Automatic annotation (TrEMBL):
UniProt protein name: Glucose-6-phosphate 1-dehydrogenase
InterPro entries for this protein: G6P_DH, G6P_DH_AS, G6P_DH_C, G6P_DH_NAD-bd, NAD(P)-bd_dom_sf
SUPFAM superfamilies per record: Glyceraldehyde-3-phosphate dehydrogenase-like, C-terminal domain, NAD(P)-binding Rossmann-fold domains
Binding site residues for substrate: 177, 181, 215, 234, 339, 344
Amino acid sequence: MSNLDCQSASEIVIFGALGDLSRRKLLPALYQLEVCGLINENSRIVGAARPEHTLEEFKTIVLENLNTFVKEQLNDEVVTRFMNRLVYQELDFKDSSSFTKLADTLATGNDTRIYYFSTAPSIFGDICKGLHHADLIQDQDRVVMEKPIGHSLESSIDINNQVSDYFKENQTYRIDHYLGKETVLNLLVLRFANSLFSNNWDRDSIDHVQITVAESVGIEGRWGFYDGAGQMRDMVQNHMLQVLSLLAMEPPADLSAESVRIEKLKVVKALKPINKDNIKEKAVRGQYSDGFLEGSAVPGYLNEEDANENSNTETFVAIKAEIDNWRWTGVPFYLRTGKRMPKKHSEIVVHFKKPPHNIFKDSYSDLPANKLTIRLQPDEGVELQMMNKIPGIASQMRIQENKLDLSFSDTYQDQRVVDAYERLMLEILNGNQSLFVSRDEVEAAWIWADSIIDAWKTTGESPKPYAAGSWGPVSSISLIARDDRQWVE
Ligand SMILES: NC(=O)C1=CN([C@@H]2O[C@H](COP(=O)(O)OP(=O)(O)OC[C@H]3O[C@@H](n4cnc5c(N)ncnc54)[C@H](OP(=O)(O)O)[C@@H]3O)[C@@H](O)[C@H]2O)C=CC1
Ligand SMILES: O=C1O[C@H](COP(=O)(O)O)[C@@H](O)[C@H](O)[C@H]1O
């Protein structure tokens, strides 16, 4: 079945259509789906926003954005098709009575509506009330929620309740854009389409796993938002736990949303709690200070624009996560993520156990373990480090460490790199929830993350400084060195 066979025509309503996310990601993603012919020909895109604009003015803004944010040259024919789908709706999301205008607009369109909440979560409840007030919620409609879903378990329950009063769970799509990344999706294929890995994916074969999500960017003008969150809430509670779940979950029965989400949830629930009693040995938080990136001086977190110089917010986190279940007992998952690290570089390194006995002692005294490196971004690919004989007639067997390297850009040269939002938008249009996060997952992740954040608060643990352009505070090296291991650089 092609994607379009399962996709009914819909009204795609973007609340916050003139905001940053919509302009940079959502509209370009929809344009790319248009290029691929993946949007039902009768679907419309309704931009809802506060300012008064004519449709022509809205189209002009959208075209400017496409010119800016779509990497490839725009195709005139596709642009015309895309523009013909656009509708503009001036709306104050906090004024329920104004939603009757939206009802009039939607009355002339398709039966199924996709409501994309591209606004701050504090407004989700107001939008739901407005939609309800104008009788705009039907069983076949879908709602898309952007992150962050709260800043704690309590606030996430509150946001989820505000939406679930009006939409059922099977109508709700919670975005974690990491689930739309090609390389994150490829984890499923790597693990469950290759028996070499699926048969060796447990405590018997694996020594430990490292997950690094390093960013070279700093706060990029969003100090106010970021300072209330920090790297634990911004990256670990969501993206890193999603990656960890896909990496560690049991094989799902199939790829349905229900099967995949149940298995991911079990992983998060099995995470050993980190609290005030063990925080010092299990987690490290850091904050970047002045430093250098690619040869240029960059300010520290407390010297960024709009900064409050007393902030204790972390911009770096390293954690020794442990999954208390049959498969993973005794296998640490070391997580590390930070802003202003030397480069944008995200990867998973699976360290297998060493061979039990070395028969090559004469040429190699200490056989290294196999390492599987999954490069998430950039330079996406998969690399397996293994031992190999050096060809030659020498009487003594000479061996060396070598690698099998599958670089996606070399192997799939003709393929454009698909942005995560394109993939996720397509899944929303097709009504497939597999790549979206269930309420249970969000809440289980908050329980684990909250305990760490509370422990930092209780112990008064301040973030350790690290120079911008470095790999994090020295204590993150100690975190892993205590177990006689080291971060892969
Ligand atoms: N930007 C990004 O890259 C990412 C954003 N997100 C999330 O996506 C969501 C949107 O973010 P972002 O686009 O950056 O935010 P913006 O503030 O840029 O956009 C939000 C839009 O909502 C509009 N809005 C707010 N209140 C009302 C109202 N009462 N009535 C009508 N319109 C209103 C704003 O309009 P006005 O300007 O008139 O107030 C603004 O255009 C947030 O939850 C964010 O956390 C998640 C990941 C990445
Ligand atoms: O959600 C977020 O993700 C980005 C990192 O996303 P990536 O796709 O560039 O890896 C992060 O910079 C931002 O702070 C966070 O809110």
